[in-house]
Amino acid sequence: MENFTYCTPTRYVFGHGAEEKVGEMASRYLGRKVMIVYGKGSVVRSGLLDRVKASLSEHGVDYVELGGIEPNPVDTPVYEGIEICRREGVTGMLPVGGGSAIDTAKAIAAGVPYDGDFWDFWAGKATVTEALPVGVVLTIPAAGSEGSGNSVITRLDGMHKISLRTDMVLRPLFSLMNPELTFTLPPYQTACGVADMMAHIMERYFSPTEDVEITDRVAEGVMMAIIEEAPKVMADPCDYQARANIMWSGTLAHNGICGTGRREDWVSHFMEHEISAVYGVAHGAGLAVVFPAWLTFMAARKPAKIAQFAHRVMGVTPTADLHADALEGIARLRAFYGSIGLPLTFSQLGIENPDIPRLVEKLHENKGESFGGYLTLTRRDTPEIYRLML
Amino acid sequence: MENFTYCTPTRYVFGHGAEEKVGEMASRYLGRKVMIVYGKGSVVRSGLLDRVKASLSEHGVDYVELGGIEPNPVDTPVYEGIEICRREGVTGMLPVGGGSAIDTAKAIAAGVPYDGDFWDFWAGKATVTEALPVGVVLTIPAAGSEGSGNSVITRLDGMHKISLRTDMVLRPLFSLMNPELTFTLPPYQTACGVADMMAHIMERYFSPTEDVEITDRVAEGVMMAIIEEAPKVMADPCDYQARANIMWSGTLAHNGICGTGRREDWVSHFMEHEISAVYGVAHGAGLAVVFPAWLTFMAARKPAKIAQFAHRVMGVTPTADLHADALEGIARLRAFYGSIGLPLTFSQLGIENPDIPRLVEKLHENKGESFGGYLTLTRRDTPEIYRLML
Fold first, then answer.
1. Does the pTM exceed 0.90?
2. Cross-chain Cβ contact B224/A241 below 8 Å
3. ipTM value of the model?
4. Which residues in chain B land under pLDDT 50?
């Protein structure tokens, strides 16, 4: 087990009516004027935005709005938001939505008190030491951003999609999580969220660090819960209990509890970020394609942990052949993804002729010549993994 | 799933050399003068106390000491500590040890700014709204107090052993956790710690709330990790990896992550508190005796969840007979406890003729006429459970 520091101070308010606390929580944690950040209109149509505003007003919290955030959020609205926040004297960020709204809000939060270009943080040229406080009303369980200090933003100039990871400064102070708000999520988006949370766990689980049984068992438990509950959500989008299990799983998948004590991997996320940046696919759908390919590549080189995943999570009966067991586990993971309507290949992702050399070039441009926790990958390996997605 | 609020802001610094951070962390979180609270001398003999003092001095943090805290901590040193803290202008509490030192320190932390008798909080006559900050150097993984807002204190007058549960105000701001500091724990104390952490999970796991798959899986995972790692620790007390797994498991067992979304039970703890208050046994040893008895009583009345425990945690092959499966799971739990040297009966606990009527009387005096989450128990039931421990 590696040394680690772990701290997750986010206050989660979970369950029926959680969003009704927004005015009270905002007045306590976000100050007198918030920026509400949201996406393309579903929170408007559902009436949630009006309810949020009413609750804020009731508690004397003023607000400005920044709507229209797209999936795979880009830098343009971040610059716009920073300018508005400065002009309007905004004291805290209130994203209402999923990862795109939250990550945009975090980027604005980091940018407002910073003298330079907010992208400096994502480009690794500066460290976030100060930010506006962030509170969340979650409507899409997927990114886990409601409990993490991370934010993924794409710079339009060059289509660089980069994940910034901070320890504390960008962690939401509160997250209001009512599973009922997820009833109206379209099936494909629900499934993409499931793939995203599975990936967040697997990036931590497939680690070179040995003797981390406690973290392995927690990670395996969260994956088993997701695999058990996801089909229920797909069968009945208004199944409160299944939605609740999926929603909380998405938070645990990414708030760090599945990663304590070990080196992590994150190559699959890096590889997917290039796909979604270039082809504009849903991040979760991209991950459903990337992960089995990455696992297949790894199974041939370092099968033990993948076999453990197969045995403990996917119910594969152990044999003497770890590689075969690993492949059977991967096949079952693919079958699970397929059963909830996720794509498994570039083609099913709607990309008929992927430009693999371009993806590889951008990947190494963004991440360097070699990277990866489970095994180190170079330009010799990454094209092969992309080709396994064909 | 029940609505819940979850927040665990404790900063855990885990691994080799974690305790070396004590001066830096104390100066940041505990102010200019701390009270070091410790037990019966092992931290003195090991040299840890001297190292802690040196680190404090190096960071300009002054200190006073309160040593000699006994297992199953009582109110006397709490009163003494409150008086010293007020007189000396102590700004923060620094327990160095396990649950007894930490719980005593928390009680002092609550008592210092309070105008009345600190016991008011434990007696339910007042609510803790303010306390000195607490930081921990953990040397005994068992109580989980390093990550909880709880504190168990026994009032000597009447031997009332009561657990106070707070949401936030008594949670340690930091906990420094170096598994090496646990190498010298005697085997029996190590085993008692294991029983304590298992009990903390089971109190949450055996819940009347259904459809909490995610929390079930996490709890099952932590229990499986403990059952896997405990024998390694018993076989080799200096096995760093196994000690590390056990130490972190003890925190997860009690920081709330195994309880999110459900009603909890805690009857076994209530029943054990009477045993350890009256007979002065180690809390964990008492729990090893109480829990299988409680489970056996419950298996006859509500076997489903106990059978799930048997199947998923204890590896019992499912049959059509849930009661039989539950009993087999309990038998394996007893075998596990026995294998690490824990007592399974009153007699093995060193209590030849337990005064069950007295235990029952005190139990209901402290906890009321009926209690329990999994099933409600009354005076008709509790003597039977105590008799199952004979």
1. yes
2. no
3. 0.95
4. none
